[in-house]
Amino acid sequence: MTIDIHTLPESERGTCPTELGFGNHFSDHLFTQRYDEGKGWHDAAIKPFHNLTLHPAASVLHYGQEIFEGLKAYRRADGGVNLFRPEQNALRFNRSAQRMVMPEVDISFHVEAIRQLVEIDDSWVPNQEGASLYIRPAMIATTPRLGLGAATSYLHFVMAGPVGPYFKEGFNPVSVYVSDTCRRAVKGGVGEAKTGGNYAASLYMSEQAAAKGFTQVLWLDAVEGRFIEEVGAMNICFVYDNQRIVTPTLTGSILAGITRDSILTLAPTLGYEIVEERLDINTVMNDIGTGKITEVFGCGTAAVISPVGRLCYRDADHTVNNMQAGPVAKRLFDELTAIQYGRGGDSFGWVVEV
Ligand code: PLP
Ligand code: COI
Fold first, then answer.
1. 304 alpha carbon to ligand 1 midpoint, in Å?
2. Which atom belonging to ligand 2 lies closest to the Cα atom of 199?
3. E strands, the chain, where?
4. 354 C-alpha vs ligand 2 centroid, how far in Å?
5. Predicted model pTM
6. pLDDT digit string (tens) for 37-81?
C-alpha cells in the first residue's frame, strides 16, 4: 500500500514556536487511512493538517471505541532526527486494538507513515534542549450506529506537534496524591489498553488532587485498594538505598510503558538492581518515612523521567529526598535522553533514524 502525499507549499507552512508547553501546537500535516469491513485499510494519505468530519452517531462519540499512542522524534546534534522504539509503540497500538475489538494496522506500514510524516514536517522537530516532536497515532470507530456493538468502519490517523516538558515543574519533582476512593482500572478491564476511557476515568480525582496542589494521581489496584499501579500519565519506580529500583509488576490493569521497559533494560547495565513486584502502599509510605526509599520517579514518553518529591496517602504526607531530584533519576534521565537524542551509543538498537 502506498501513501498519497499532498504537502503544503513552503510559503504556507507554519513555523515551530520556541515557547513550548505540551500538546498545544500541531505540525503542518496529518496522516489518515480508513478501514471498512470487507475492504480492509484503504486511502492512506498525508495531507495538510485538517479537522475531521464525523457523523454524530459515530460509535467513538458514544461508546468510546478508540485507542491512541504517544512517541517522540528527537533532533540530533548533526541535524538528523531519531524515533525511539517506534515498533514497540506500534505493537502496543495493535494490542490495544485487539482489546477494543478494532482492526490491527500493519506494523511496518504504520511506522513508515510516522517516518514519512516526520520527514515532511522536519522543520517542526525542535532544536532546543529538552524539546521534541510528540507524535500521536490514534484510531477511532466511525460507523454511524447507536446500537451497541463493535463498529465496522474506522479512521486511523497520526498527528504531531512540538513539545517541551510535560510537567510545568520540568525536571523538578512533582507532588503526587494517592487516590483512596476512585480507581482507574481493574484487572480484566481495559487498563492495559491505551484507550481514552482510562484517561477520562482519571479526570475526576485528578481535578480534586490539583485543587489540593498535587500534579498527578497515583492509582491503586481496584480489587483490594492496596497495591500501587501507576500514575495518570506515567509508570512509577521507587528507589531503595540509592541502588535498587522497584516498580509494580504488570498485572493487566497497568499500561506496559515503553519507557518503563527501557529502564528495566538500561538500569542493570548502569549497576542498579531492578525488581518488579506488587508494592503495598502502606509499606511504601512507611519506607519513605523511614528513609529506606531514597527516591521516587515516574517514567513515560511525555514525562520522560520525572522525579516525585512528595507523596500523600490518607493521613501520611511525606516528602522524598527533600523535594530534590535524586541521583538515580538524574542518571537514568541523562542516559536515556542521550540515546534518544543520539548523544550516546544505541547499544540496544532502540533508535530508528528518520
Ligand atoms: N502509564 C500511562 C497511563 C500512560 O499514559 C503512559 C504514557 O504513555 C505511561 C504509563 C508510560 O508509557 P510509555 O513509556 O510507553 O510512554
Ligand atoms: C504519553 O506519554 O505518550 C502519553 O500518552 C501520556 C499522555 C497523558 C500525554
1. 10
2. 8
3. 4-5, 29-36, 40-48, 66-68, 71-75, 81-84, 132-141, 153-163, 174-178, 216-220, 228-231, 235-240, 244-248, 273-277, 293-300, 304-313, 316-319, 351-353
4. 22
5. 0.96
6. 999 999 999 999 999 999 999 999 999 999 999 999 999 999 999
